[in-house]
Amino acid sequence: MAFASKSPWVIHYDGSSCNGCDIEVLAALCPGYDVERFGIINTGNPKHADIFLVTGSVNEQNKAVIREIYDQMVEPKVVVACGICACTGGIFHDCYNVLGGVDSVIPVDVYAPGCAVCPENIIDAVVQGVAVLDEKSKALKKKRKEAAL
Amino acid sequence: MGKQTIIPFGPQHPVLPEPLHLDLVVEDEKVIEAIPQIGFVHRGLEKLVETRDYQQFVYVAERICGICAFGHSMGYAETVERLMGVEVPERAQYLRVIWHELSRIHSHILWLGLAADAFGYESLFMHCWRLRERVLDIFQKTCGGRVILSVVKVGGVVRDIDVAQLKYILDVLEGLRAEYEQICRAFLKDTSVKNRTVGVGYISTEDALGLSMVGPFARASNVDYDVRSLGIGAYGQLSDFQPIVSSDGDCYARMEVRTREVVQSIEIIKEMILRMPQGPIAVDVKGAPADGAESSMVVEQPRGECYYYARGNGTKYLDRMRMRTPTSQNLAGMTVALAGCDLADVNTIILTIDPCISCTER
User: Fold this and answer.
1) What is the pLDDT of residue A57?
2) φ, ψ (nearest 5 deg) of residue B7
3) Nearest CB neighbour to A92, from listed B12, B45, B148
4) What is the reported pLDDT for B204?
5) For residues B26 and B5, what is the distance between their CA atoms, to the nearest angstrom?
6) Distance from B146 to chain A by nearest Cα, in Å?
7) Is the dihedral of CA B87, B90, B93, B95 positive or negative?
8) How far B141 CA lies from chain A's nearest CA (Å)?
9) pLDDT digits (tens, 9 = 90+) for B171-184
10) Which end of chain A lies in a sparser environment, N or C, as judged by fewer CB atoms within 10 Å?
């Protein structure tokens, strides 16, 4: 197990969510569900984060912000789309200002559906994300070794 | 005299889960001006009334905001009921008030936690969110959902709360109240909290009235206005209702008003449960609103007065649905409070005004 997946730090960004998924993401971090006991910490700095939790769909205004946060994160990194709006656009998919799910801007590794997504679902998605993080860091190490040879 | 610089705040900022962008014009450590920019959450859901019929739209209205979700669905349903001239059964009105006040408790405790986080008191933040889970448990037992409740429909409510569950609500609230009062002591008596909040972000009564601020933030500046005192729906049956006001107008006053409102909400729920009438919980609503018929409605959301407007066009699709949310009223007050403050106090001031961006932009 790589060091990052033992204690993955998460960063959260609210795309254009209704807050429902945001407060559930926070609720997952707080007592009651308390993922901090597993070493999962919420950070505000993209450079410290391993897992990017995005809630809400994408529009022209926040496209650049999501892209920017994703680009600032250091490899290996995992994106989790929290809530149905982040997955596909949800009930707002046909609104004039909604471009669709987060995967229309950045690659998404794990989808956590639900409206609003319940904390159990977020924890499940983060656990899956940790497995992806492990794979990615292995691939990265292999690449570095090959480059060194 | 220092040089002026601009510090960007947000849209991604650890203190506020929501995307609000502020350009803070600072000179040394003093904020000269704060220029807000919104538009990150705009979805355009008011236009969805053209493609969802008036009975369906309740689920869209509920997702305007995830924190005051119940209030929005109730506000929308009451607007349409007024438009169609529907009389809602009394028991449904009582049930709506109970869920609405529970939403207020959960929203206020959530906000108190975020405020504690903003001035750097993380364990208090965790305690608030621990208490909030109890209210969410009530939601889950009575409605099935934690955040989005989906219990309102045009003409009444979908679910009833039986006697056993009503007693359960009373028990939970009684337990919650005892623990909540301990947390309140930390918020209102603790010296380190007072150092961060007393005298910070002052808004005068004239400013609050002039900028038409609403809700607990206006009441903290001595504006005696609460929509609940108009007695719409079951609020008219309350034996006594006095808006909670404070005259200080600073961050501490805004916190004090909201901490006291939680206790007030618990009292309202108790009274509603004790006087709950028997009877049906919904009436059938058929037909379509008349062409050109208009109606409007105000609801006291956790963050203040929210205004709803609907216009029919003779079909089952509404012609227009419009709302004015509390935060759009309060943003101007926030920029006034931010002007002249220390850079370190920006977090606390923004949080005590508690902008709800997804309501505002919809």
Assistant:
1) 87
2) -105, 120
3) B45
4) 86
5) 5
6) 8
7) negative
8) 15
9) 999 888 888 988 88
10) C
Task: Examine the pLDDT at B58 and tell me if it is beyond 70.
Answer: yes
- Is B18's CB within 8 Å of A22's CB? yes
- Number of inter-chain CB pairs under 8 A, A vs B: 124
Residue A2 has pLDDT above 60, yes or no: no
Residues B257-288 as b/e (b if ≥16 CB within 10 A, e otherwise) read: bbbbbbebbbebbbbbbeebeeeebbeebeeb
What are A95's two structure tokens? 């609104």
Q: Does residue A76 have a cis peptide bond before it, meaning omega lies within 30 degrees of 0?
A: yes
d(CA B19, CA B6): 18
Longest dimension (CA), chain A: 53
Query: Residue B45 and residue A95: Cβ atoms within 8 Å?
Result: yes
- Measuring CA to CA, how many Å separate A1 from each of A7, A133, B235? 11, 10, 58
What pLDDT is attached to residue A4? 62
CATH number of B44-329+344-356: 1.10.645.10
pLDDT at B93 over 60: yes
Report how far residue B219's alpha carbon sits from residue B257's, in angstroms, rounded to the nearest whole number. 7
ipTM of model over 0.85: no
Q: Collapsing DSSP states into helix, strand and coil, what is residue B212?
A: coil
A72-111 per-position pLDDT tens digit: 888 888 999 988 888 888 888 888 888 888 888 899 999 9
User: Edge to edge, what strands does the sheet with B4-9 contain?
Assistant: B4-9, B21-27, B30-37
Closest CA in chain A for residue B51: A94
For residue B321, what pLDDT is reported? 86
The pLDDT score that the predictor gives to residue A79 is: 92
Closest chain B residue by Cα to residue A98 = B43
Q: Which domains does chain A have, with CATH numbers?
A: 3-148 (3.40.50.12280)
Cα separation, A58 vs A45, in Å, equals 21
Instruction: From chain B, pick out residues whose CB is under 8 angstroms from the CB of A18.
Output: 63-66, 69, 358
Chain A positions touching B8 (Cβ under 8 A) are none
